[in-house]
Design brief:
With about 350 residues, the protein is an alpha/beta fold. The chain has two domains: about 170 residues, Glutaredoxin; about 120 residues, no CATH class. The strands form two sheets. Strands 1-2-3-5-4 form a five-stranded mixed beta sheet, sandwiched between helices. A two-stranded antiparallel sheet has the order 6-7. The longest helix is centred in the first third of the chain and has 22 residues. The chain is globular, with a radius of gyration of 20 Å. The structure holds zinc ion. The site of zinc ion (ZN) has 5 residues, from α5 and α6.
């Protein structure tokens, strides 16, 4: 009998269901001592400036959205919603904090030093109206967005926790590895859009999802462009963007199954930190190219092969073998077609 109390399947339903479902589904339900007091609680060692900055951001967020919002300050997070304060607390205690702490253990060593604002809008029309008014480049059908320059996540909360997990990963990753190539940033974020906590609550593990058939089809009809191109050329800039997302996600899932995703990510970050120190004067294009090269080399190193082509052969063979044995059903989560 599985221990349901320790499972949190992030594809569980919309915001309205959270009060009922997540209360019993969270690995760290209210009252549990597991992992409380972690770095994302109001700890005394968080700098006073961060607390002050969060208070300022809370006031700004209330103003900016122009409609009554419940706002909660939980440094480094500023949370806002058009639902109730109680629902916002639940989102923090049961989803945001557990994910942030677990990702900090698995990948991210550099904590946010500035406020991260997360706005959860429960009505799709409100979310779309905001997206339109904000004049973002994002397509209006996206169900969540992370604006890096503002460290702002805005979500259509009716699409489920998977969208929140995706965008939260982006926000935390930006502080930890700002030069991370886009493909890997998106691979990690989309890995967590369909994920669950391990039974002991210490790991957040990606599962199969709706992107699987996209990659399967692309491999069969020759539209998968291969790792060398994916890792060195612009990410998701063509009409084949969904294939890029699927390939990046499944590459991360492959590494996760090999227990190499954490070592690979940290190796990448360490190399990129060296790059940011040494190449401060270089152009953005040069930095991007060098970052891509370093990350490709790190991938070859963890796979212990000499070329990306060899990595690709193994990756595609793994992907096809999963299809043959039949993986967990590739379900279409609530946020299926719309998470950028
Ligand atoms: Zn994304």
């Amino acid at each position: 009998m599985p221990n349901w109390g320790r499972l949190l399947l992030l594809t569980l339903g919309p915001f309205a269901l959270i009060a009922g479902s997540y209360l019993i589904a969270s690995p760290r339900a209210a009252g549990s001592s597991t992992l409380t007091g972690g770095i994302f609680r109001d700890l005394p060692d968080l700098p006073a400036e961060l607390h002050a900055a969060c208070q300022q951001m809370a006031a700004k967020t209330r103003e900016r959205f122009g409609e009554p919002l419940e706002v909660l300050t939980k440094p480094p997070f500023v949370l806002a919603t058009d639902a109730t304060q109680a629902e916002l607390c639940q989102q923090f205690e049961q989803i945001i904090e557990p994910i942030a702490q677990t990702l900090a253990a698995m990948y991210f060593d550099n904590e946010p030093t500035q406020p991260v604002t997360i706005v959860l809008l429960t009505r799709t029309d409100r979310y779309r109206a905001w997206l339109k008014a904000a004049s973002t480049a994002a397509r209006t059908e996206y169900s969540g967005i992370y604006l890096r320059d503002q460290r702002l996540v805005v979500l259509d909360a009716s699409t489920g926790a998977g969208t929140l997990a995706h965008e939260l990963t982006h926000a935390l990753c930006q502080f930890d590895a700002p030069l991370l190539p886009e493909w890997l940033d998106e691979g990690l974020a989309s890995l967590h859009e369909e994920s669950e906590f391990s039974n002991d609550g210490l790991l957040l593990l990606g599962l199969d999802n709706w992107r699987q058939p996209i990659l399967a089809q692309a491999i069969e009809n020759g539209r998968y462009r291969g790792l060398r191109s994916l890792l060195s050329e612009p990410f998701a800039q063509t009409r084949l963007a969904p294939v890029d997302y699927a390939a990046a996600r499944y590459l991360c899932l492959w590494l996760q199954e090999q227990q190499l995703l954490g070592p690979f990510y940290r190796k990448c970050r360490q190399r990129l930190e060296t790059l940011s120190a040494a190449e401060a004067a270089s152009s953005e294009a040069q930095r991007t190219a060098e970052a891509q090269r370093l990350v490709a080399a790190a991938l070859c190193q963890v796979q212990q092969v000499g070329s990306l082509e060899e990595v690709d052969t193994r990756f595609v063979a793994w992907f096809r073998s999963r299809e043959r044995v039949g993986t967990k059903s590739a379900t279409r989560g609530a946020n299926a077609p719309t998470t950028p």
